[in-house]
Amino acid sequence: MAIKRIEARELTFWERTYVPEVLKGVWITARHFFRNLWIFTAQRFGLKKTSRGAETYQYPEERRPLAPRLRTLHRLTKREDGAPRCVACMMCETVCPARCIFITAGEHPNPHIEKYPTRFDIDLGLCVFCGYCVEACPEDAIRMDTGILEFSAYSREEMVMDMKKLLALSEAPPPNPHRTPPPVEEAH
Question: What local confidence, expressed as pLDDT, does residue 183 receive?
Answer without folding.
Answer: 52
